[in-house]
C-alpha cells in the first residue's frame, strides 16, 4: 500500500465542498473523485481542485473509479445509511458525516451491515472529539481526577440560525427531509460528547418546542433532564434561536467543579472530597478548601475535520486506532432520539429506547407534516441534492 489513501466525497454541498478543500492540506490523503446528482454543485469546489479530480453524477460510476479506496459521505441525513452500505459493498472504507442516521433503528441497520466488513475502516465524523479541551476533560474523567461525577450541565445556545438558513434547502427543518431540528442537525456533536464523556443516562425527561423562533416544523429549543445509573443527574439545554448564546459545560464532581467555556478548562478542586466533608466536618456550613486551577489544554492549529480524515487514512495505512468508530455513532443519536420522544410525547423515556416505537413516531410526524402530505419530493435524486 502507498503512502496516501485515495478518497472520494459523496455530496458537494456546504460540507462536502469544504471537505474537498480541507483534503488538499492532508499529507496522507489524495482526493480523486466527487459525486453529486446536481452538476451545478461541483461549482462549489474551486476550479484548481476540480481540474485534478473526476466529477460523477452517478454513484455507481463513482464507486467504480479506478483506485478509489475510501469515501466520505456528506449528504442529507436520510441518505447516510444506504450510501454507506453501498460504499462498503463496493469495498470502500467510509467516513459518515454526523449524525450517522436519523434514528436508532436505521443506525443499527448500518452498524449490523458494517460488521460484515471487518477489513474496512468505518468512522463517523465526530470531529469535536479532537479538540484539546474535550480530550483533556476526558483524560481527567477517565483518570479519576474528578472522582464521582454528581451533576452535568451543558448549555449550548450559540447555534444561532436565521430563517434564511432554514429556507436555503427544502429538506431542511422538516421531519421528512431532515428527521428533526437542532438535535439532528446542530447538536450531534454535543450529544456524542455527552455519551463519550459521561456515558448514557437511564432516563430522559425533556421539554421540546417546535418552531418557537422560526417558521419550521421541527424542534428549535430543547430542555432535557437526565438521570444516570450511578445517581448523577444532568441538564442539556439547546436552541437555534438565541443570540449571542452560550456554550458552557459544567461538571460537578466529588473533587470539585470543572467549567469548559470559551475554549478554557477551569477546575476549582476540592482539597477534600465533597462527601467526606459532608460526613466528617465539625462545622455546619464549612465547605472544603479549594485550589483554583486553570488546566493547560494546549492548542490545536489544525482543522478538526482534517484530524479525523488523517486518522482514518492512518487507520487504513497502518492500523492506527480510530478517533470516532462508526459503531459509537448510535449512542449520541439514541440520546437525541430519547429527548425528542420525551418532549413530543410528554413522558419520561428510559434507555435503551424502543427503536421501533421511535421510528413509528417519526413516520407519524412525516405523514402529518406539510411536506409529508406532498410525498416529500419523493424522487430521491432530487431530495438528495446536496445543500448539506
Brief characterization of the structure:
With about 400 residues, the chain is α/β, with parallel strands linked by helices. It has 13 helices and 15 strands.
Question: Could you characterize the architecture of this molecule?
Answer:
By secondary structure, this protein is an alpha/beta fold. Helix content is about 30%, strand content about 20%. α4 runs parallel beside α5. The longest helix is centred in the last third of the chain and has 17 residues. About 45% of the residues are buried.
Unreliable runs, pLDDT <50, ≥5 residues? Answer: 373-383
Class per helix and strand makeup: alpha/beta
Specify the biggest β-sheet.
9 strands, mixed
Shape: globular
Query: Number of helical segments?
Result: 13
Radius of gyration: 22 Å
Can you give the mean pLDDT?
94
Number of strands: 15
Strand residues, percent: 15-25%
Strand order of the largest sheet: 14-13-12-11-7-10-9-8-15
> What order do the helices and strands follow?
EHEHEHEHEHEHEHHEEEEEEHEHHEHH
End-to-end separation in angstroms reads 33 Å
Q: What is the helix fraction of residues, given as a range? A: 25-40%
Write the SSE topology:
Elements: E1 5-10, H1 14-22, E2 29-35, H2 47-50, E3 54-56, H3 59-63, E4 70-73, H4 80-89, E5 93-96, H5 104-114, E6 122-124, H6 132-142, E7 149-156, H7 163-167, H8 188-198, E8 203-210, E9 219-227, E10 233-239, E11 247-253, E12 256-261, E13 264-270, H9 274-280, E14 290-295, H10 304-318, H11 329-345, E15 349-350, H12 355-368, H13 380-383
Parallel strand pairs: 1-2, 1-4, 2-3, 4-5, 5-6, 7-10
Antiparallel strand pairs: 7-11, 8-9, 8-15, 9-10, 11-12, 12-13, 13-14
Amino acid at each position: 500500500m502507498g503512502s496516501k489513501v485515495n478518497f472520494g466525497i459523496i455530496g458537494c454541498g456546504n460540507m462536502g465542498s469544504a471537505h474537498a478543500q480541507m483534503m488538499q492540506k492532508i499529507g496522507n490523503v489524495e482526493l480523486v473523485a466527487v459525486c453529486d446528482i446536481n452538476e451545478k454543485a461541483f461549482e462549489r469546489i474551486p476550479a484548481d481542485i476540480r481540474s485534478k479530480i473526476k466529477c460523477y453524477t452517478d454513484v455507481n460510476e463513482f464507486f467504480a473509479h479506478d483506485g478509489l479506496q475510501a469515501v466520505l459521505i456528506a449528504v442529507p441525513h436520510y441518505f447516510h445509511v444506504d450510501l454507506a452500505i453501498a460504499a462498503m459493498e463496493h469495498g470502500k472504507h467510509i467516513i459518515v458525516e454526523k449524525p450517522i442516521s436519523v434514528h436508532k433503528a436505521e443506525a443499527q441497520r448500518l452498524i449490523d451491515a458494517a460488521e460484515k466488513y471487518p477489513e474496512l475502516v468505518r468512522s463517523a465524523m465526530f470531529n469535536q472529539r479532537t479538540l484539546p479541551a474535550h480530550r483533556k476533560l476526558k483524560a481527567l474523567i477517565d483518570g479519576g481526577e474528578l472522582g464521582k461525577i454528581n451533576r452535568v450541565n451543558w448549555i449550548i445556545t450559540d447555534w444561532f440560525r436565521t430563517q434564511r438558513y432554514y429556507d436555503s434547502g427544502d429538506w431542511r427543518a422538516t421531519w421528512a427531509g431532515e428527521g428533526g431540528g437542532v438535535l439532528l442537525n446542530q447538536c450531534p456533536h454535543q450529544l456524542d460528547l455527552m455519551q463519550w464523556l459521561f456515558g448514557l443516562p437511564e432516563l430522559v425527561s425533556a421539554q421540546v418546542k417546535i418552531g418557537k423562533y422560526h417558521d419550521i416544523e421541527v424542534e428549535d429549543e430543547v430542555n432535557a433532564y437526565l438521570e444516570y445509573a450511578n445517581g448523577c443527574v444532568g441538564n442539556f439545554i439547546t436552541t437555534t434561536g438565541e443570540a449571542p448564546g452560550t456554550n458552557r459545560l459544567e461538571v460537578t464532581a466529588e473533587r470539585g467543579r470543572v467549567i469548559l467555556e470559551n475554549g478554557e478548562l477551569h477546575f476549582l478542586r476540592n482539597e477534600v472530597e465533597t462527601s467526606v466533608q459532608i460526613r466528617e466536618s465539625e462545622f455546619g456550613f464549612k465547605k472544603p478548601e479549594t485550589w483554583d486551577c486553570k488546566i493547560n489544554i494546549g492548542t490545536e492549529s489544525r482543522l478538526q475535520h482534517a484530524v479525523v480524515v488523517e486518522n482514518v487514512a492512518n487507520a487504513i495505512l497502518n492500523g492506527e486506532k480510530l478517533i470516532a468508530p462508526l459503531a459509537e455513532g448510535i449512542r449520541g443519536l439514541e440520546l437525541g432520539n430519547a429527548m425528542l420522544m420525551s418532549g413530543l410525547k410528554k413522558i419520561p423515556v428510559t434507555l435503551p429506547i424502543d427503536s421501533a416505537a421511535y421510528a413509528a413516531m417519526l413516520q407519524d410526524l412525516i405523514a402529518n407534516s406539510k411536506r409529508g402530505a406532498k410525498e416529500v419530493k419523493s424522487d430521491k435524486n432530487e431530495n438528495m441534492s446536496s445543500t448539506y
